[in-house]
Amino acid sequence: MIRYKFILPFLVLLFTTNSFCQEKFTIAFGSCNNQNLPNPFWQDITSLQPNVWIWGGDNIYADTNSMRKMKRLYTQQKNRFFYNKLTKTTPILGTWDDHDYGKNDGGFEYKKKKESQQLFLDFLDVPENSPRRQQEGIYHTKTFKTKNNSVKIIVLDSRYFRTKLTKGTGSKRFQPNTHEDGSILGTQQWKWLENELKNSNANFNIIVSSIQVLSKEHGFEKWGNFPNEVTKLFKLIKTSKAKNVIFLSGDRHISEFSKTTIKEVPYPIIDFTSSGLTHSYTSFKSEENKFRTGKVVSSLSFGVLSIDLTSNKVVFQMRGKNNAILQEIGQTYP
Q1: CA torsion 208→209→213→217, rounded to 10°?
Q2: 23 near 146, Cβ under 8 Å?
Q3: Residue ranges per domain, the chain?
Q4: Secondary structure class of 319 (helix, strand, coil)
Q5: Cα(77)–Cα(101) distance, integer angstroms
Q6: pTM of the complete model
Q7: String of DSSP letters for 199-251
Q8: Which CA distances in Å does 129 have to 118, 135, 139, 189, 234?
Q9: Check: CATH 3.90.1150.10 for 23-332?
Q10: Triad 44, 57, 332: Cα angle to 5°
Q11: 267-299 pLDDT per residue, tens
């Protein structure tokens, strides 16, 4: 019996110490959510108890100049029972894409962008006195602190300032714009992003873009339509020395992992595309993407990042109904 008096406290201490040291952070995100279609995932997402839910864009389908209509559609989505339950327990962040912005493939030319911004912020319950109500564009950042570490979520606005797209030929809707004055983020947002990365002390910097950052061969919307912006973004990641930058994107109605490297950046750059929540490109056959790792998932899905802040390992998962894991990859960061 004397042995147990010593062993039992030791085991309790060991268990407590290990539990204390292990720091986990879970991100759930998704895009392309039609308010008029069944929303199958909110219970599955809630059951994971994520630290944050991130809207990746096309959070409703409005495509309208009528702010009355847009407000009604946001309210419809917000009042969905299981989504509403999620908002009571989980911080909600997000960006918009074209359909909730108000104009398909729309950019800076959309005439109702100021009014649309206020309705978007209403949807996210942003306080009336928030500086985000006064700025142009919905870009935003939030840092989540754990006991010894932190995760920074940087939400980009790829609509408000985006200059005109260059029309493509054949099956490609758009082609790259090689003009140096073409922009996705606009001058002010670029300054903001530079400041956020250069002054970040976070262990992970998660950048949310409604459109894909790495995949560039397809003819739809993407960062690759503005090659100079991609070069500028990669240079900023390098010079800022921000730790462990990860991209989350949507828009495409498919889910895929893209991965590349930047010279002198000590970790790979992953762009996790998750789309869509209520409808997807089920007839998808093939599409070139030299950065793709794994396969394209063309069924309904949402994304999950499980970040172990002790080992700096991230598990990226595409999840389907009933939390089925459709595909996953792991990456250990410095």
Answers
A1: 140
A2: yes
A3: 23-332
A4: strand
A5: 15
A6: 0.94
A7: T---SEEEEE-SS-SS--SSSSSSGGGSHHHHHHHHHHHHHHT-SSEEEEE--
A8: 12, 12, 16, 21, 34
A9: no
A10: 65
A11: 999 999 999 999 999 999 999 999 999 999 999
